[in-house]
């Protein structure tokens, strides 16, 4: 399976690339600049996710997309993720790519009820207010598409090794933290799982 990773220069994106390579996928990364060293066999595609033609060119012959794009200033108003997703969805439709895995955030829509009270009432409306609004708009674009998609809404991301113990939250569960390594591993596993 050919997998395109967007946001591959970020902390979680780098781990997604590593796990995907480790599981035998043919990986391409779409980045603004090749500032990182990628493992042998990774195809590096330079471009701007806000440029529809660049995204369409990167989508050629891809079977699946893992989108790990994140804003740098979560408290500020931003439209990066919604604009990027509009281009990604259009390119996927044009290229015939069906499978889309996306990192959103706990606190978007109904996922807020899975967060601790202090996260829901203090962190989301203050520190995360800009990025939550952008991710909510991004999710709307995905939901309105006809793609085969999974949206992951992780709680607070931490550094550390993968434990292999990832839980999809049910109606009465609360999420506090997850390592980027566990999130990345889980996302890659969803390429061929529900």
TrEMBL record:
A GO term, aspect molecular function: biliverdin reductase [NAD(P)H] activity
Domain of life the protein comes from: Bacteria
Domain NAD(P)-binding: 7-193
InterPro entries (UniProt xref): NAD(P)-bd_dom, NAD(P)-bd_dom_sf, Polyketide_Oxido-like
PANTHER family for this protein: FLAVIN REDUCTASE (NADPH) (PTHR43355)
Protein name: NAD-dependent epimerase/dehydratase family protein
Annotated source species: Arachidicoccus soli
């Amino acid at each position: 399976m050919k997998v395109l990773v967007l946001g591959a220069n970020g902390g979680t994106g780098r781990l997604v690339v590593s796990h995907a390579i480790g599981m035998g996928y043919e990986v391409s990364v779409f980045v603004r600049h090749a500032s990182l060293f990628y493992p042998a066999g990774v195809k590096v595609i330079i471009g701007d996710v806000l440029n529809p033609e660049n995204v369409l060119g990167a989508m050629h012959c891809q079977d699946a997309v893992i989108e790990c794009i994140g804003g740098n200033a979560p408290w500020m108003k931003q439209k990066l993720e919604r604009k990027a997703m509009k281009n990604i969805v259009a390119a996927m439709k044009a290229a015939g790519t069906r499978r889309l895995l996306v990192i959103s955030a706990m606190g978007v829509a109904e996922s807020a009820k899975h967060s601790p009270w202090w996260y829901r009432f203090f962190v989301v409306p203050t520190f995360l207010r800009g990025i939550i609004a952008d991710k909510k708009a991004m999710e709307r674009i995905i939901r309105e598409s006809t793609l085969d998609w999974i949206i992951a809404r992780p709680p607070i991301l931490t550094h550390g090794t993968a434990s292999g113990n990832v839980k999809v939250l049910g109606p009465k569960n609360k999420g506090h933290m997850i390592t980027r390594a566990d999130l990345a591993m889980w996302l890659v596993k969803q390429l061929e799982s529900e």
